[in-house]
Amino acid sequence: MASPTPTPTLARRTLAIFKPDLTANASSIELAFIMLSTRGFVPIARMHFTMTRAQAEALYVEHVGKPFYEGLIDFTCSGPSRAIVLEHLDTGVDVVQKWRAHMPKFRERFGEGGCRNAVHGSDSAEAAAREIAIFFPDLAPWRCRSCGR
Fold first, then answer.
1. What is the pTM of this model?
2. Which residue out of 48, 63, 102, 120 is catalytically annotated?
């Protein structure tokens, strides 16, 4: 079965996750949201939660079998995270690529290295649609096949 094609609305959105290393400090969270805002990103949905193993496995399904997979899953589930659906003030920009271009700044400032890299970002419009469906099913036009949500 072919993967569903994202709607134009989802193609203009991406999923960002602030991981436990970033969210361990309230002032870091505040600064990270300021950094998003000053770069033109607009959070349209956000959730504070501790990721379940099922959510982490659905999020990182493309990494199954890689040497870092178990460490990534364990770390991602180790403490509170923030999932954020982002749009951009410039509606003509590819928000997925724009967020990915800014992720290194967030990782350098808040990350600890390796899997403890502070943030996650979808790598394509298709991945963004699938990942948004995991955490924000009301924003997705279909159910996530990986986790059933």
1. 0.85
2. 120
Within 10 Å of residue 90's Cβ, how many Cβ atoms? 10
- How many angstroms separate the Cα of 64 from the Cα of each of 80, 128, 144? 23, 18, 17
In a domain, 147, yes or no: no
pLDDT at residue 120, rounded to an integer: 97
Distances (CA, A) of 19 to 16, 48, 87: 9, 10, 19
Q: Domain of 56: which CATH number? A: 3.30.70.141
Output the 3-class SS for 26-65: HHHHHHHHHHHHHCCEEEEEEEEEECCHHHHHHHCHHHCC
What pairing do the DSSP bridges indicate for beta strands 14-18 and 119-121? antiparallel
Q: Would residue 60 be called left, alpha or beta, if left means φ above 0 and alpha means ψ between -120 and 50 degrees?
A: alpha
Q: Please list the residues that pair with 86 across neighbouring strands.
A: 14, 43
Residue 2 lies in a domain: no
Q: Has 120 been annotated as catalytic?
A: yes
